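Provenance

Sequences were taken from public entries as deposited. Structures were produced by running a predictor on each sequence independently, with no templates supplied. The record for CTF18 protein from Urocolius indicus is shown for reference.
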Amino acid sequence: RRHVLEASQQLTEIINSETSTESPEPSREAELAPEEESALNCLWVDKFTPRHYVELLSDDYTNRCLLKWLKLWDTVVFGKEKAVKKAKPSTEAHPPFNQYKEQQNKWKTKVQLTEEILEAELDQYKRPKYKVALLCGPPGLGKTTLAHVIARHAGYNAVEMNASDDRSPEVFKTRIEAATQMKSVLGANEKPNCLIIDEIDGAPAASINVLLNIIDRKDTEGEAAAGAGRRRRREGRLLLRPIICICNDQ
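Predicted structure for CTF18 protein:
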């Protein structure tokens, strides 16, 4: 037992002498302490949240439909012309194969049918027929994360507001118009805003009517006023930005 204690003491002295000679490492750890401390204090929900489209773990069909709907705004928001699909060459020399392709086109996937419906229903201003997308589901499903990731992926600046916080319809209307008509001035590259309204099911009926009026007033003004209406639409009366609403109870 005495020999074991002596050997353990010698080993302890050797370890202490080696750690005392390595002085630069503790100073380096002291320099990185603030960054490590901020990383440790960060919530896991924020630390491991998806930041890119490929990192999303939600339903792929929902992700693609929302991204497809948001990309339909590119003509109005970014001035990009819609890509025209090239017509497939005729296969008159092979009639059986052509008949097989026609039969195959009858059985289209759910995503293809949804994309055709979204592309077919565009208004006179080249905007989607439905100006608001509604994401519904239980809490913790990733609805808000999906909206932010899709907005950034499509080139927008995500502006989030909570419909339950602003109970006044006047404040609700002011915040919607400010988000949909003003540009982002943060950073060197100005990006158009994409409004994300969270907890829309907690908003009063008056606020919902304000949102509907902002969406529907464009048709009456656009049809009634031909000359003066164009100038008003340029000033921001026409809704030219997408709106994504989020709710728990549809």
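Residues 48-80+109-218+237-249 form a domain with the Rossmann fold fold (CATH 3.40.50.300).
Strands lie at 132-136, 157-162, 193-198, 243-247.
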